[in-house]
């Protein structure tokens, strides 16, 4: 049977934009480190001058990088903050659209250049959540995953 | 004139991952039932081994099911929790990307197998929100929709 | 060095649906004005009878409008509320899928007709955030963007 999951308390709430030309991943992660945000939710919208994201290959357990050398709308940035090696680490997925409105996306990587980005962060406080290498997926995941079976 | 909508209070906040191999919809809905979450917001990212979602046909008032038998990134899971027939029911839409980064999505259905899923739930407390069959759309919707006209 | 960003406090929380036939942008913005929500986060899902969104051309600094005269799922509505000319203004991006499940999206514009829309708004209270014309992008942005460099 599934255990009771311990809830978090909501901490600080931030809403900010990022300067044109900054690297999106580095700016969001830098913001979290600078403000000592160790756990939380990330949401955002905006536009980018170019995008770099990746798709995880579940067989080879390696990321395939996709680079879009074109300006795109950022339809959504969605992710979270937790600890990895005692440092705040963000994990975010980005959804983009090209000039015809077609949507693309993947795991946000360094190399995504901000044109404009409006980011919401809800800090969570409580027991810290720490990523550890997970053998089954090859990813760094949180312990005690929810299982119905 | 539009009535004043009564605000909710924020309740418990959860951040958790789901075990590889679980059914995404059943795991999220099972989590809500297990923890007695009757109203709230759902957000999430991750990856799936295969996806099942549907598109609502507004004329025939039936869902058309789409099955993707391939691994995909989950760019976003976005939805809510409310009551239906006195039980917590989730309503979530999923946005995915294939190995070329192209985005797809629809109404999340059972048959979406988790590779990794990181889910945020913000419980809301206050007057319970209950879905009831709506004749105009054929959907189960909340009462008193906002109307400007 | 980056300054410390002042956090917001969470205010009222709303969860509501919008009547079939309403204009999505006008209904969400009208809701914010009607309830005096001057700052906040917007999230939503649903379906639309037709969609109108735009893609910003970063060179010409003009929006290109895209109209989809077809019913679509709303995979996510993601955005924020802040002040512009002393009035609440929403900025939201919409992600949609067509009948084959392919995703599209951009900057939400008037002309998007609701079939069903379930909207979450988290009000933020604290120093008001006001948009001002930004020369570098041609957009109306908040002051003091985060810069790592």
Describe this protein's structure.
Three copies of one chain form a homotrimer. Chain A has one helix and nine strands; from the N terminus they run βαββββββββ. Chain A is mainly β and 149 residues long. Chain A has one domain (12-124): 60s Ribosomal Protein L30, Chain: A. In chain A, strands 1, 2, 3, 4, 5, 6 and 7 form a seven-stranded antiparallel β-sheet that branches. The first copy, chain A, has a two-stranded antiparallel sheet with strand order 8-9. Chain A binds chain B through residues 2, 4-5, 7-10, 39, 41, 43, 53, 55-58, 64, 66, 68, 76, 78-80, 82, 91-95, 102-107, 124, 129, 134, 136-137, 139, 141-142, 144-149, and chain B through 10, 12-20, 22-23, 26-27, 30-31, 34-35, 43-45, 47, 49, 71, 73-76, 78, 95, 97-103, 115-116, 118, 120, 123.
Helix-strand blueprint:
The structure is a homotrimer of 149-residue chains.
Chain A: E1 9-18, H1 24-34, E2 40-57, E3 62-68, E4 72-84, E5 87-97, E6 103-108, E7 113-125, E8 132-133, E9 140-141
Antiparallel strand pairs in A: 1-7, 2-3, 2-4, 2-6, 2-7, 4-5, 5-6, 8-9
């Amino acid at each position: 049977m599934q255990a009771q999951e311990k809830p978090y308390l909501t901490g600080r709430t931030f809403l900010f934009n990022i300067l044109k030309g900054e690297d999106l991943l580095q700016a969001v992660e830098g913001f979290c480190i600078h403000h000592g945000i160790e756990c939380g939710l990330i949401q955002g919208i905006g536009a980018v001058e170019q995008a770099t994201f990746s798709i995880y290959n579940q067989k080879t357990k390696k990321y395939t990088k996709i680079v879009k050398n074109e300006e795109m709308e950022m339809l959504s940035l969605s992710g979270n903050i937790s600890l990895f090696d005692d440092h705040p680490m963000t994990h975010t997925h980005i959804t983009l659209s090209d000039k015809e409105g077609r949507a693309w996306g993947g795991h946000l990587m360094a190399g995504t250049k901000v044109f404009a980005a409006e980011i919401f962060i809800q800090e969570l406080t409580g027991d810290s959540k720490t990523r550890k290498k997970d053998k089954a997926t090859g990813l760094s995941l949180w312990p005690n995953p929810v299982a119905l079976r």
